[in-house]
């Protein structure tokens, strides 16, 4: 089931975030997102959150801030479903372009973004913390002008 993300989901999304990332977002980071009015959705299965997405809408831009799918549910279209929903929402609210960053090593996510017609527009050196160092982020963008009629 796809539904809006609520502050009351904090414990579950923190648990999912911590299970999936070497350097997960903290509770404080999620709190900033809620206070800032960022928008999010979750997917549930068996009354448990299995995936979530958080976006910010600023002027004419959508920034995908976080997209997480539980490991056992990856490769089944859940990330795509959340991302498409978020992009449709942004388009409906007059947003013309979407951006996101992704780890250079996250080939599965990069494949999804390319499949959804995102294009790589840049990179951020040493953006993501990893064990023993950092990893570059690739920046992807997608025009929403001709998408989702």
Choose one word for the global shape.
globular
Which superfamily, in CATH terms, is the homologous superfamily? Answer: Gcn5-related N-acetyltransferase (GNAT)
- In CATH, the architecture is 3-Layer(aba) Sandwich
Strand order of the main beta sheet, please? 1-2-3-4-5-7-6
Q: Major sheet, described briefly? A: 7 strands, mixed
| Total count of domains | 1
DSSP summary, beta strand count? 7
The secondary-structure class comes to alpha+beta
Radius of gyration: 15 Å
Count of DSSP H/I helices: 4
The share of residues in extended strands comes to 35-45%
Task: Report the order of strands and helices.
Answer: EHHEEEHEHEE
User: What name does CATH use for the topology?
Assistant: Aminopeptidase
Average pLDDT across residues? 94
By CATH reckoning, the class would read Alpha Beta
Distance between the termini: 24 Å
> Could you list the spans in which at least 5 consecutive residues all have pLDDT below 50?
none
């Amino acid at each position: 089931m796809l539904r809006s993300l609520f502050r009351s989901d904090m414990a579950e999304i923190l648990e999912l975030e911590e299970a999936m990332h070497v350097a997960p977002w903290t509770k404080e980071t999620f709190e900033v997102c809620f206070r800032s009015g960022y928008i999010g959705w979750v997917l549930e299965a068996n009354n448990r959150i299995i995936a979530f997405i958080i976006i910010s809408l600023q002027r004419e831009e959508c920034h995908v801030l976080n997209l997480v799918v539980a490991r056992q549910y990856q490769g089944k279209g859940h990330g795509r479903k959340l991302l498409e929903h978020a992009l449709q929402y942004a388009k409906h609210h007059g947003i013309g372009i979407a951006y996101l960053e992704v780890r250079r090593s996250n080939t599965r996510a990069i494949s999804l973004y390319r499949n959804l017609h995102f294009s790589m527009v840049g990179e951020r050196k040493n953006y993501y913390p990893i064990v023993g160092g950092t990893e570059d982020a690739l920046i992807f963008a997608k025009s929403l002008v001709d998408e989702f009629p």
